[in-house]
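Write out the 3D structure for:
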Amino acid sequence: MQAPDGGPASLPAPRACEVFELPNFMLRVLVLLGNSLLGLNPANLILDRRSTDLRVHGVPRTGYALAQQYNSDACLSARANERERSSATWIPMSRHVYDKDHSTHNSLLVSHSLRAAYIFNPKAAHTSVVEIFRRASRGKLISHKLELLGLNGSKTTDVDFRRLLPDDYALFTFVREPQATFISGYAEIVGRWSARNEPSDRLKINKVVLSPGTHFDQVKCTDPDVRSKRFAAFLDDVLHCHRLTYDTYHIWPQVVKLDVIPTWRTVDFIGRVESLEEDMKTLLRSRGVQLPTLPHTNNASHNVDSCGNQVSVPPVTRLAAVPVLCNLLRADFDCFGYPMPDGCSKLEQLPVDRKTLSCVPS
């Protein structure tokens, strides 16, 4: 494989902000390695709803049980570590160069008629969840912006939060298999980047958002191997903490996206995208309403590159990336009960001190 300029597509030297180190690891490995890698079987990979069995391997069976796991001491520790890491890694990847005070927030959608509230979780059937919640509430929803705790602690006082969300309201969200969420977020980022076709827009975005060393955007959409090469380049950008577009929040671990609630407030219900209808029915039944007609599923067909090709990642490339993704998304596996893919246990994990990681935009 060659880099966009014709040179060898080798990874840059490791930097202090790396989350997972890959000594002597070439970009072409993500393209060429396949089923032989570590003896992995693609059938064991959990990458979409068809390959996810939520009723085995000790996975919590209900949204209430999963919420208990999310509120457990083990998950609270994982969330605290990820919060500290996010301030130095995930958040700077998304921040604008010339907007030092740019705040990163998530939203809380409140239904007073149902006495319930939903924490936004982009790339976890967010559009469908919101629409179902809206229909069940007969269209009466109020949105509140809450800043991520990883920035500098919550700026919302306990009194203000209780005013937004009384203690007897059901607080819920939906989650998705971590690797599938990351890949969906990657497609969203590339799709949004490619949609900005005006040269003036691209120039502005390059100056304000992207690090000079970023190269996922340099992979030509006309390359016959673009899907593998672009994802490999994107992973390299992430591992080296390159500042990407503001839309990078789509690939953040879900525990980071959901980290807007005061630590004293527990989440009451966490459903899964893979069992959306069943879990939403259970939640709404507890609020005294029936499940409304489900909206059409968003198939993300809008995520196309500059050549109009659907943004996707080939199975072989996904398979090779398993160890990297498991390391980046470990907190989600710890908190949401999804079984770790085979590749995570078959590769020796390097020690990670999340508290000392830093990511200074280049």
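Residues 1-16, 18-57, 346-362 have pLDDT under 50 and may be disordered.
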